[in-house]
Design a protein that fits this description.
alpha/beta; Rossmann fold; 2 domains; three-stranded parallel sheet; 10 helices; binds NADP nicotinamide-adenine-dinucleotide phosphate
């Protein structure tokens, strides 16, 4: 058996084309473009690539996108003031502060300072709570994209056992909430999990969101499982690798996402969807 490849690039292109149609309709109705502002503090090279890709994707979809680059020694107070200004700016529908932030800044304080109705990343405690209680306002982009990928290949979720490796606030936990809401039985693993392979081998749907290259090998995957690789790891030779050993797992899994070209492009596409939704809500 060779796994079906879940093509994140193609699905993202389709999603972005749909957003572009909505963006054009929004502009016609409102007389302005839907707008996302991305704030980057410091010069983390990976973050610079991520924010540029987000800004470019917005512009390609006919939305307005502003990138605010602040020096690495920006104080927390200065960043909070900037966020207050963006909260009050009616031309801004979405605010995204790229993480991680330099150590002098408390990320939690910053995320909580973003107006919940502009928090297109869905990380604000009000949005995390809304997701947990089943009425999400903004669904965090990466797990949202994963759900769309599962949907795209008709993965049965109701009654399935989903195992998520990784329990971060931005990926693992919201992923668990979405799969639970869709009727899966969910297991969340972390770095203290005693026997990780015993857990992952039970998965009908396996999501790896850890940040350890090739942590998941074929021996950890149930034959036929749908394997979603969220990890993005830069190897010593400069290449990107996921958390899943793609070549070893491909013959065992039923479906699998590649890295690159899997979850990454869908994350950006769902950021556009969230920004568009925010703009449309503002219109009514
Ligand atoms: P994170 O905040 O560092 O969380 C990592 C999680 O993995 C933690 O819950 C940690 O457990 C767990 N973990 C660490 N080692 C483990 C092990 N050996 N076995 C089981 N669990 C282990 O990372 P993140 O922000 O969620 O990101 C995870 C990966 O996804 C990274 O590679 C990141 O670059 C990537 N990512 C990709 C996208 C995308 O668009 N594709 C978006 C976001 C993140 P503890 O809780 O016990 O510490």
């Amino acid at each position: 058996m060779t796994a079906q490849l879940i093509d994140g690039l193609a699905l993202a292109q389709q999603t972005r084309a749909q957003v572009a149609q909505r963006a054009a309709a929004f502009e016609q109705k409102s007389g302005r473009k839907a707008g996302l502002t991305v704030v980057l503090v410091g010069e983390n090279p990976a973050s610079q690539v991520y924010v540029r890709n987000k800004v470019k994707a917005c512009e390609a979809a006919g939305m307005k996108s502003e990138l605010i680059m602040l020096p690495a020694d920006t104080s927390q107070a200065a960043l909070l003031t900037k966020i207050d200004q963006l909260n009050a700016d009616t031309s801004v529908d979405g605010i995204l502060v790229q993480l991680p932030l330099p150590s002098q800044i408390d990320s939690h304080r910053v995320i909580e300072a973003i107006a919940a109705d502009k928090d297109v990343d869905g990380f604000h405690v009000a949005n995390a709570g809304a997701l947990m209680t089943g009425a999400p306002q903004f669904t965090p982009c990466t797990p949202y994209g994963v759900m769309k990928m599962l949907e795209s290949i008709g993965t049965p979720i109701r009654g399935a056992h989903a195992v998520i490796v990784g329990a971060s606030n931005i990926v693992g936990k919201p992923m668990a909430m979405l799969l639970l809401a869709a009727g899966a039985t969910v297991t969340i693993c972390n770095s203290k999990t005693r026997d990780l392979p015993a857990m992952t081998r039970q998965a009908d749907i396996l999501v790896a969101a850890v940040g350890r290259p090739k942590l998941i090998d074929a021996s950890m995957v149930k034959p036929g499982a749908v394997v979603i690789d969220v990890g993005i790891n830069r190897l010593d030779d400069g290449k990107l690798a996921g958390d899943v050993d793609f070549e070893s797992v491909k013959p065992v899994a039923g479906a699998i996402t590649p890295v690159p070209g899997g979850v990454g492009p869908m994350t950006i596409a769902m950021l556009l969807v969230n920004t568009m939704e925010s703009a449309e809500r503002r219109l009514v």
